């Protein structure tokens, strides 16, 4: 009787892991939604875990990126509401990096070979776009830096391309850190009932979203051209003989 190949066994184990993860998510979704239903509920839950509070908060951030349908801004604002701007931003960033690393490397490990074949199809404009590392890097940065856009799915998309992991995580941190700090500041000011400052930061975020979304294509083109210009070697002048 032929033994199943190693590849088949890995696919079976991964399939079981995905099914188990979906089952756990469905089972615990009501409790997660109830906990995240308000800032005070989330704050009370985090504080109820005592010294494990920071760990639990970081786990929520990881869960939000990897599987849970929780908007990232909610957790980021909650970080400032619970811990203040500085510490809330720190914990959120740690969770962001860990959650993105799990999603990125897990996806790259199981699906990169398959997607690389799809990227070779010349008739697919989207696939050819993400196959261009420089242009895709510019797209990632613009998408990450514009507040309000759904960013977590791009972690999975990026893992299926040829982008280098160091380059991706640099873009991720540089692009998302300003708005992580801004979101934490909003949460902190709400907790301290400094609503005017919270409104000002929120209005700036909305304006940034509108401007960034309207000019996203031009910005991608600008950044990708700038990247190519920096990478292009300078031409050596030639002198004709007189």
Task: Provide a descriptive summary of the structure in words.
The chain is mostly helical and 242 residues long. The chain is 79% helix and 0% strand. Helix 3 runs antiparallel to helix 4, helix 3 runs parallel beside helix 5 (85-119) and helix 5 (85-119) runs antiparallel to helix 9. The radius of gyration is 22 Å and the shape is globular.
Secondary-structure element series: HHHHHHHHHHH
Q: Would you report the number of β strands?
A: 0
Poorly predicted runs of 5 or more residues: 229-242
Proportion of residues in β-strands: under 5%
Based on CA inertia axes, which overall geometry fits?
globular
What is the percent of helical residues?
A: over 70%
From the N-terminal CA to the C-terminal CA, the straight-line distance is 83 Å
Instruction: Give the class from helix and strand content and strand pairing.
Output: mainly alpha
The largest β sheet comes out as:
none
What is the radius of gyration computed over CA atoms, rounded to a whole number of angstroms? 22 Å
Per-chain topology:
Blueprint: H1 6-35, H2 39-48, H3 53-66, H4 72-83, H5 85-119, H6 125-131, H7 133-145, H8 152-159, H9 165-191, H10 195-214, H11 216-231
Question: Could you list some keywords that capture this structure?
Answer:
242 residues, mainly alpha, single chain, disordered C terminus, 11 helices
């Amino acid at each position: 009787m032929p033994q199943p190949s190693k590849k088949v066994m890995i696919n079976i184990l991964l399939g079981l892991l995905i099914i188990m993860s979906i089952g756990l998510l469905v089972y615990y979704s009501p409790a997660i939604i109830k906990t995240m239903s308000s800032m005070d509920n989330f704050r009370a839950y985090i504080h109820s875990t005592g010294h494990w509070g920071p760990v639990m908060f970081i786990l929520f951030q990881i869960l939000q990126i990897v599987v849970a349908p929780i908007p990232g801004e909610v957790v980021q604002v909650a970080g400032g509401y619970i811990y203040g701007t500085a510490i809330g931003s720190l914990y959120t960033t740690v969770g962001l990096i860990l959650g993105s690393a799990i999603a990125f490397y897990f996806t790259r490990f199981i699906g990169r070979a398959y997607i690389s074949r799809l990227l070779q199809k010349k008739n697919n404009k989207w696939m050819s776009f993400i196959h261009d590392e420089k242009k895709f890097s510019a797209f990632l940065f613009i998408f990450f830096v514009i507040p309000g856009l759904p960013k977590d799915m791009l972690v999975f998309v990026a893992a299926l391309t040829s982008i280098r992991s160091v380059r991706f995580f640099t873009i991720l941190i540089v692009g998302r850190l300003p708005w992580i700090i801004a979101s934490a500041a909003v949460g902190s000011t709400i907790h301290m009932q400094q609503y005017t400052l919270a409104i000002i930061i929120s209005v700036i975020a909305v304006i940034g979203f509108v401007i960034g979304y309207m000019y996203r294509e031009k910005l991608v083109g600008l950044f990708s051209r700038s990247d190519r210009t920096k990478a292009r070697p300078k031409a050596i002048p030639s002198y004709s003989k007189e």
